[in-house]
Amino acid sequence: MPELPETETIARGLDRAVSGARITSxxxxxxxxxxxxxxxxxxxxxxxAEIVRTVRRAKLVxxxxxxxxxxVVQPRFTGALLIDAGDLPDRxxxxxxxxxxxxxxxxxxxxxxxxLGTVMLMSRARWAEYEGGLGxxxxxxxxxxxxxxxxxxxxxxxxxxxxxxxxxxxxxxxIYATEALWRAAIDPSRAGETISADESRALHAAITGVLTExxxxxxxxxxxxxxxxxxxxxxxxxxxxxxRAGEPCKRCGVHLATTDAIDGRATVFCAHCQR
Length: 275
Hints:
By secondary structure, this protein is α+β, with helices and mostly antiparallel strands. It folds into 2 domains: about 5-130, MutM-like, N-terminal (N-terminal domain of MutM-like DNA repair proteins), CATH 3.20.190.10; about 145-270, Helicase, Ruva Protein, domain 3. The protein is about 30% helix and about 20% strand. It has helices spanning about 5-20, 40-45, 90-95, 125-130, 145-150, 160-165, 175-185, 195-215, and strands spanning about 25-30, 35, 50-55, 60-65, 70-75, 80-85, 95-100, 105-110, 120, 255-260, 265-270.
């Protein structure tokens, strides 16, 4: 968390709100969130730049600057990019790690309560190199059932683990892998090589469906995730598997099971109808 729908929501909100804004100065209060750059270098290279646009790639929020460089943020569990026009609650400012002062008087905070997320500054060349290590985007037109089948084929790893491998497929984490596999009625522990062509088609539809629906609901909020305006996502009420261990399956009524055996994280599934 945040995964593709949440970072897409953050990126869209920022793109609307701060595209064209000029960064006048940067304050780094917790340098441990920075990667690949020192605080002094970060502040020097970012100050004076204009934010051209903000996009998402995988689970990353990418702000493209007029200098050609990119501020690349990976929020992870408790990170958020919040716009402060003077009305941001003090509890949010308290956990600001990096603050970008904008020429119009607003401030863009990277708030991270547990400081598990990261903020990077990358040149065009470094971004191209970094992005080259990421898998295809599941909402791109190029992502087809045949492509998904190819990503799974030949691997003995659990299909859920393969879906969460950012080198194979970008943007999917525990929440949406769990949900997609429930929708496709596929056991998360099955080896990728056992997934048939028909099952790949069902899984493809489940992946694209759940991601699209979650984006429409501005993502899933349980505790810390907020969009750029501080609003919570509303998709949690639509979850069928994730977070529902012990509750009845919405498809067959059998109580949902949970295991940590697949990838070290809780996987909720229906032992009766996910085969």
